Amino acid sequence: MNTELSTDPFSEEVARAELYGLLASLWLAPPDAGMLDQFRVAVTQAPETGSALEAPWQALVARMRAATVESAAAEFAALFQGVGKPEVFPYASFFLAGFVNEKPLAQLRTDLAAIGLTRDAALLETEDHVSFLFEVMRYLIAGDDAGVSNLEQQRRFFRAHIQPWIEALCKAVDAQPAADLWRAVAAMTLAFVQVETQAFDLLEA
């Protein structure tokens, strides 16, 4: 997906967009040495001190600092790349319809087309992979096209394509004995989605 993002450092929305981007990266692939180094030397503060995100963020930072490239890659493979059937399928269709490439994916593609977004042909994952959905949210928050990147589009997309299934994904990861770093990723994801849900609830009140 090709998008252009605003880089206004004073925008409060930048933090939301960046967190969606980070989570998208962690759900798509194990962290490389560069990302692990960033967590060891730079990332120390919670997104908002005293918020619901503080404890899960600190836990994620701790697990990232304890991980190695090798341990992270092995855990990611054990959870999401098992021979035959993976332990966890991070796709909306699987959790909403019981199988991958089902009706939820078709509806998602229709909704993406309506806002002018298409899948990059180079991507291996389908559009209902959690990382792709988080990247869409990132774009809807921080993109330059106000006709697409606005609060109402965020609300609609989140309600339709993230909120209905993301808790089930996070719980599925948490239940896996092999989960360590991704248990923290799942906890951070769930906490963030709950904050987002509450914010959209207030918007609709």
Descriptors for this entry?
single chain, mainly alpha, TorD-like, 10 helices, 205 residues
Could you explain how this protein is built, in words?
This protein is an all-alpha fold and 205 residues long. The protein has one domain (15-204): TorD-like (Orthogonal Bundle), CATH 1.10.3480. Helix content is 61%, strand content 0%. The protein contains ten helices and no strands. Helix 1 runs antiparallel to helix 7 and helix 7 packs antiparallel against helix 8. The radius of gyration is 17 Å and the shape is globular.
Give me the strand/helix succession: HHHHHHHHHH
Q: From the 3D coordinates, which CATH architecture would you assign? A: Orthogonal Bundle
Rg from Cα: 17 Å
What is the CATH T-level topology?
TorD-like
CATH homologous superfamily - what is it? TorD-like
Protein name: Molecular chaperone TorD family protein
InterPro entries: DMSO/NO3_reduct_chaperone (IPR020945), TorD-like_sf (IPR036411), TorD/DmsD_chaperones (IPR050289)
Keywords: Chaperone
Organism: Variovorax dokdonensis
Topology of this structure?
Layout: H1 13-28, H2 33-41, H3 54-66, H4 69-80, H5 92-97, H6 103-114, H7 130-142, H8 151-161, H9 166-174, H10 181-204
Helix pairs in contact: 1-7, 3-10, 7-8, 9-10
